[in-house]
Fold this sequence. Notes:
By secondary structure, the chain is α+β, with helices and mostly antiparallel strands.
Amino acid sequence: MVQSMQTPVQVRQEKKHPQWAFLEGKFVPIEDAKISIMTQVVNYGIGAFGGLRGYWNDEKQQLYVFRIQDHLRRMLNSLKLFNNTIAYSAVELQKIIIDLLNREGYHEDVYIRPLVYNATEDITPRLYDVRFDFACFTRPQGNYIELQVRACTSSWRRIEDNVLPSRGKITGGYINSAFAKSEAHWNGYDEAIVLNHDGHVAEGSAMNLFVVRHGKLITPPVSDNILEGITRGSILQLAHDLGIDTVERSIDRTELYIADEVLFCGTGAQVAAVSEIDHRKIGTGKMGPIGLKLQEAYFNIVRGKTSKYADWLTPVYA
């Protein structure tokens, strides 16, 4: 049974760290949100997660969660990949998240991390005769990466869909991201760009990628072992509405070097410019005109300043 929601006015204040989590069917203090080291998610990374943002609009005194149902449906689809279920629907999960945010009472931008995980305590890695559960926490979140970054092509390849499903944010698969991100950091860059098994551009370490060439916005297709990003889909829709030509096709590594613009996008990355790749300046070395147009429109949308896309937002406070 989900505990009742507190009144936002009673709890709303600036937060430097979270105080609550949802675990094993109830809200608990964050320090009590513990999972056993014997669970299969700890030992084998058998789980999937979502990444959502809430954006604070100071003028309206409102916190908006961006495309919450789309994120939750994708996470539940990951359970289909595992051939498993949990006891909550997407609508019920949304209620839990909104309740959790009300308990925290944030007055700032936040990050939301829902997680479905194999809670079975057993040493045999498997997807049958196991129990999956749901957990969630939130935290204040500014920029995950700077809105202008330097990147390198990683020596680590993107995991193929037939090795580990690309269409879910599978917990254990993010060791691939950790290797790529860390290699970039150790080599003096901000971010990594990973190639897929046939050498085409896939994505960043944990974000989708676009290039701009001859006025067209180009992004790899979902068949190139990329995550079917919610923000990626939003940018494609936004570009169409702004009259920007979009193309989904494979991208060669060398196309990055001669692109007019390269952009990262995602829940964490938001809309960020890649100013340099492998020591080569991209375009002018700054956010280009198409990127600026998309970035400005995106931030207006997520903060509730564009009524046309109001259905993408869920207000937290009544």
